Amino acid sequence: MQNLLTYSLYIFLALAAITLLLYIPRIVCWFGAFAKPEHPLSKKQNKFAILVPARNEAVIIKQILNCFKEQTYDAKNFDVYVIVKDENDETINICEEYGYNTFVAPEQTNKADALDACFKSLLAKEDNDYDDYIVFDADTWLDKKCLEEFNNATSTGRDIITAKKLVKNYSLPKKNRGITGLTNGFLWTMMDQLGNKWKSKHGYRLMTITCGILFKKEIIEELNGFPFDQTLTEDMELMYHSALQGYTEYYAENAIIYMEEASTMKVTNIRRNRWIQGYVGAKRLYAKRLRKAADTPKKKMEYYYLIGIYHGFVIYSIPLLFGLFNFVMAVVLFFYGSPLVAQALLNVLYAFAYTYLTLFVLGIFVIASDSKDIHTSFWQKVKLALYHPISYMRYTNISLKALFGSHPTEWQQIERNVTESEEIPETKKAD
Predict the structure, then answer these.
(1) Please, what is the Cα angle at 267 between 373 and 413, to 5 degrees?
(2) Residue 252's domain spans which residues?
(3) Phi and psi dihedrals of 410, rounded to 5?
(4) pTM of the full predicted structure?
């Protein structure tokens, strides 16, 4: 029995070492976060159509509308279309007060449906003179120079441009700055600074999120709308489709938006469930075609990055299985009165320590790469770093459900953080 416990530890250490070695290309991306930001400049003032899906978002819609009013980019070069489901939505009256357009898409069941309907309507216009389309979520804040920097990024000639995403909760009231939401917001820095920045510079496929994303007009015309509605994560479907079509992508680090995180664990888990299950569902839709298309060394590496979350599944399933095995052995040995219970429980502790320490190191990289944008004290950053591993361990049951359970098909309304003021706090505005 002692040999069994010892061998399980050796197997765990060997598999953990192998998976970490296989993760090295991802770790290389982490160090790319510390490179000097690129700053392309455009001589042309492109005209943008901005789409904002806003189903039942009247309570917070003024915040993003204020952001549009404050943009340094000339207002004559962009039009705003706020997409609602119900023709009686109060959002329509609010947009009229601001002088912005609304589009009613009554048949929408998810974000992709809303975008698809609005894109089709815009494409059908004879006087459509837009150069690019940009999508923002209704609860997003924009840096004052966001549209200006999006325009600068178009000079790269890339088909799809994604903004830098930060967490806006640091500027919300204290009740909305819960540690769960703030650590969940580390996800944006992982995607962008620890991933998209390096991949953009070296011409690899990016992680696309359909908030703060720009499409060249030709891409939307080719798609004839936005046909990514087979899962609730249209952005993952877009990412895989872009890989198959060979669309070029760029990470615009200077085009900054602020994403909202939930203030409670309940709402955070709703979002986590939807995102992870949608990611897995989209991967299943595209898996065979993606593997078949990976026929060159570079495309194989792109495929490696495209399935990045599965690396996490593998890395953390190993300590999970090792820990569960030794926990069961500890229970059995306890009933037999064996002194080997201590060794089995020590192995469980090793599994937890490995998981915690690897996630802790990741959290340190997140904080270091975006330290100037994490507007909080040193000790709060320490607290976030220490809590981050615990927060992300909670993905375990969500990931298992996504891999082996059923997937949601209906879009679920998410509770929003409502500030006492409709104005955007000064700490989040561009200098």
Answers:
(1) 110
(2) 36-301+420-428
(3) -105, 135
(4) 0.90
